[in-house]
Amino acid sequence: MRKHVSVLIAILMVTVLVLSACGKKEEAPKEGAAAEGGKSAAASTVKLGIFKNVTHAPGYIALEKGLFQKYWGENVKIDVVAFDNGSDFSTALATGEIDLGFVGPGPSTNQYIKSKNFKVISGSNNGGAVLVAGKDSGITSVKDLQGKAVAIPTKGSTNEISLRLLLKENNLNVTTDKSGVNIIARAPADTLIAMRQKEIDATLIPEPWGTQMEQEGIGKIIVDWNKIPPNNGNYPLTILVASDKFLTEHRDMAKQAIKANAEAIDFIKKNPDQSYELINNRLKALSGKGMDLALIKAALSRLNLTTDVSKEAIEEMAKVSIDAGYIKEVKKEQLDLSKFVDLSLLEEVKAGK
Fold first, then answer.
1. Using an 8 Å Cβ cutoff, are 133 and 201 in contact?
2. Which stretch of DSSP H or E encloses residue 256?
3. Tell me: the pLDDT tens digits for 305-320?
4. Nearest residue to 159 via CA among 218, 87, 258
5. Contact (CB, 8 A) for 133 and 220
6. Which of 88, 142, 83 is nearest to 110 (CA)?
7. From CA 303, how far away is CA 269, in angstroms rounded?
8. Which end of the chain is more exposed for a tag (fewer CB within 10 A), N or C?
9. What is the pTM of this model?
């Protein structure tokens, strides 16, 4: 009898354990969901966009020194996507082709007004563009640009916005005839060739292209980087932006990207000679060809590397884009970029959090 009772009790205990186990629903943690301690989950792959341009030097150093990998961990794969202009970059960010990266405020603001699905999270470089006149163009000042053709990298670019502000300061209009200034879009490499062949009269272009034209003797810098508007060169030329999706799902990784960018800036300032070679290595990887280190050195001397971002300067440039017709969705008096320029993560990094 006791034997039967013991068997019955054992069966009942097993049944209870099985039913308890069935009642527990195990769910695998979703990617991006908050992990233990309130930290966001890490992405397995990060798609990072960057230009083939020395003005993106902090991004180059962060890649070459393995700083993104350092903060994100060795298990994270970094896909670097190279762009020739900010319009293509901003479209890729808005459509999810990349997660974050470095771009200019002009085209990124234009795209943000349309899609509103990414944010500025840090600065990287202020200034670094120059106005160069052709050797035999007869141009010695901005006022001499009347009736001339001036190249910019792409329509709606930060460089075009600076050029329009420069023309406005000198009471010059943008036109397609000799009564004003004809603005044409050409990629920097094509602009260099056009300057050699005297197909254009001048260009407002990011470094190192201006320095290269000057060193070749085909052009002369007539407005240096620290006189280019707005704010006499102290305006965001290269900023770090991230998609809302990436910020929501991988907030900590976005903060770590800011740290990598800041550490790269600090490295360049403390180790300039070593930086030239590293920057050249990344240029080779992105564009297939390197650059004379003396040219990189000269170009870096015209950059103000900083994580700071002037929201006021970005707003001023956005109003120029509205006047130029690149932003049609909003009027100047309705412009609100408070959700676009979100420096809360940068502030946390600066506070040591």
1. yes
2. helix 251-270
3. 999 999 999 999 999 9
4. 87
5. yes
6. 88
7. 11
8. N
9. 0.86
